[in-house]
Amino acid sequence: MNKIKIGIVGYGNLGQGVEVGLKNHPDMELVGIFSRRDPKTLDTQSPAYLVQDILDFKDKIDVLILCGGSKTDIPKQGPALIEHFNTVDAYDTHAEIPEYFNKMNPIAEKNQKVAVIATGWDPGLFSMNRLMQEAILPNGQSYTFWGRGVSQGHSDAVRRIKGVKEAAQYTVPDEMMINKILAGETVDYNQKDAHTREVYVVLEEDANPTKVEKEIKEMPNYFVGYQTGVSFISEEEFKAEHQSMPHGGRVIRQGKTSKDALSIIDFSLSLESNPEFTAAVNIAYARAAYKLSQEEKYGARTVLDIAPHYLSSKSREDLMRDLL
Amino acid sequence: MNKIKIGIVGYGNLGQGVEVGLKNHPDMELVGIFSRRDPKTLDTQSPAYLVQDILDFKDKIDVLILCGGSKTDIPKQGPALIEHFNTVDAYDTHAEIPEYFNKMNPIAEKNQKVAVIATGWDPGLFSMNRLMQEAILPNGQSYTFWGRGVSQGHSDAVRRIKGVKEAAQYTVPDEMMINKILAGETVDYNQKDAHTREVYVVLEEDANPTKVEKEIKEMPNYFVGYQTGVSFISEEEFKAEHQSMPHGGRVIRQGKTSKDALSIIDFSLSLESNPEFTAAVNIAYARAAYKLSQEEKYGARTVLDIAPHYLSSKSREDLMRDLL
Ligand SMILES: NC(=O)c1ccc[n+]([C@@H]2O[C@H](COP(=O)([O-])OP(=O)(O)OC[C@H]3O[C@@H](n4cnc5c(N)ncnc54)[C@H](OP(=O)(O)O)[C@@H]3O)[C@@H](O)[C@H]2O)c1
Ligand SMILES: NC(=O)c1ccc[n+]([C@@H]2O[C@H](COP(=O)([O-])OP(=O)(O)OC[C@H]3O[C@@H](n4cnc5c(N)ncnc54)[C@H](OP(=O)(O)O)[C@@H]3O)[C@@H](O)[C@H]2O)c1
């Protein structure tokens, strides 16, 4: 069998997740990791190259998985690379996705490439479930919960406060509210009341804990309006307990099929490694990108535009027989 | 807006579920119910006709939802009706689905129709989730649990025993096992040990409870190998407590993304009315069938072959903006 040849662009958490995740897929192989940093400095056994040399691999790679940051990397790397390669990314700046799609789609079409954008779990699997839940139960109410898990963005924001040496921020969903929703009760949901924030902080030696805690709790956009708990811990405890990146969450819909009958659909994720799971979703959609390009179905697509069978290495016939 | 014109074929539980469910969808309208029974005998306010007159509606219906039984109705009605109409069905004889697909597909293609087969929740949403879970977490283990809910087939089988006046059989999943799986523990799963069966029986006046109970518990295929509890109740209690058709279940996958990191994906349903929810899924896929036929994408399809956006009444642009 011809294996699907994969390239990884950007070697952060997600890039490393793709590297390790590809080992689970015998129909795929990793051709190389492409970084803006000197490849020799990357801690990897896989072939690594400078991203500016990537065009040498134009005919050696079927799909590039773009693992850069959503803030500045993907909006630049996506449009540049889709000209030459099929791509998959986990772009997660929700508000900018339509604009990004409109940038990627014409370039992909013109160059006969496939771009699968904004995969992962949110956006990604959660989006897909939100759509299906709403289409099946239009007369109802949707709820999204995130966590318990580390929010990289919030942890970074706390780390930027003067006096903070290390920080991890956990988003914690209201389990009582979740249980009520799953039991069919009516609840008054809004995102802020449905989540609390737990922050674990290692202070610099001379820092003032009272001041740091106040600064965290009053940080606009990130913490204002949320019930936030701040704990100061030692560097040892931080290293032992707060280095991993668990996450998860759920998308629930309560909907009436008739006046008397309630249905509840619940899609939930519990992830010991957020980047590895996001990578796992990217890998499955890389297979979809490959198959779509084989069928000459070029252009940009989101998870909402891709039939499930494209994610699988099995044939439609085998799937119908084994899974339906 | 032009509404999508729907016909219902067969007026049992599922047919009634589609009738009531269509009221939730302002972009659809019910043209008529088609039954093998005299329409005047059906308890409905909707227009009802004899199914043999259905060809008069060839140009007045966009999609027929086939609500007949899977055992004998669908295998006959499907191939006959796909020649003239787009169809959706909830055919659930798992082992026969490939054969049914192969019967429907060429007729649909030849007559430029779309057949969406085997929708509902199992087959249907559960199948789709099994596929996605396995494609994303290939290194793992899948689990399906059904219930707590009424199994129509098992209830019917008990009702056929001499001395039984009324019966309801509940399939009950092992909640302890589910909790262990969701907690990431390794369990020894097989379908029989993961479920018990609860049977509520109203006896005929002269019946022998010991004999009936023995006959239930020793019924091959249905009860042998399952832990089964039998309760004898009064007709009043039966009418008060066991007339509705709740069901549900879940499809779970535990999978390793790397040596150390476990991910758990859980898709679960809790349904006060199994037929109404199945109908709700059928209705969303009827919209998909309509859109696919508008795009001239003819032939037979399962839920595995249909991109999520087809289920929604919103445009791809709106979905990208609002749900992704
Ligand atoms: N859709 C979803 O569900 C979902 C879930 C999680 C994350 N995401 C998205 O995935 C994106 C990537 O996440 P991530 O955790 O992989 O980000 P990250 O670790 O910060 O990596 C981003 C980029 O920064 C560079 N980099 C990484 N480590 C570095 C270091 N030590 N020194 C200098 N540069 C370094 C890498 O590019 P070079 O190798 O080129 O230097 C890498 O591609 C996030 O922006 C987020 O938007 C999406
Ligand atoms: N995929 C899934 O998840 C899923 C879930 C649930 C059910 N299903 C499938 O859906 C199928 C239909 O289920 P259902 O509960 O609607 O079956 P049902 O109530 O037994 O109806 C089946 C057919 O029997 C006829 N019928 C109904 N009531 C009757 C009556 N009182 N007297 C004479 N005939 C009557 C109707 O046809 P006429 O109007 O032409 O007489 C009807 O279409 C099942 O076979 C099952 O396979 C699938």
From the structure above, extract its key features.
4-stranded mixed sheet, globular, Dihydrodipicolinate Reductase, domain 2, homodimer, binds NADP nicotinamide-adenine-dinucleotide phosphate, Rossmann fold, 26% strand
Distance separating the two termini of chain A: 25 Å
Series of H and E elements of chain A? EHEEEHEHEHEEHEHEHEHEEHEH
Shape of chain A: globular
- Calculate Rg of chain A over CA atoms: 22 Å
Spell out the CATH superfamily of the largest domain in chain A. Answer: NAD(P)-binding Rossmann-like Domain
Itemize the secondary structure elements and their pairings.
Two copies of one chain form a homodimer.
Chain A lengths: L3 E6 L3 H9 L6 E8 L12 E3 L12 E4 L6 H9 L4 E4 L7 H14 L3 E3 L8 H12 L3 E7 L2 E2 L1 H8 L4 E10 L1 H8 L12 E9 L5 H9 L9 E6 L2 H7 L5 E10 L5 E10 L2 H21 L4 E3 L14 H7 L2
Parallel strand pairs in A: 1-2, 1-4, 2-3, 4-5, 5-6, 6-14, 10-11
Antiparallel strand pairs in A: 7-12, 8-9, 9-10, 12-13
Helix pairs in contact in A: 1-9
The structure holds NADP nicotinamide-adenine-dinucleotide phosphate (2 copies).
One NADP nicotinamide-adenine-dinucleotide phosphate binds next to helix 1 and helix 9 of chain A.
Protein name (chains A, B): Meso-diaminopimelate D-dehydrogenase
Pathway (chains A, B): Amino-acid biosynthesis; L-lysine biosynthesis via DAP pathway; DL-2,6-diaminopimelate from (S)-tetrahydrodipicolinate: step 1/1
InterPro entries (chains A, B): Diaminopimelate_DH_Ddh, Meso-DAP_DH_C, NAD(P)-bd_dom_sf
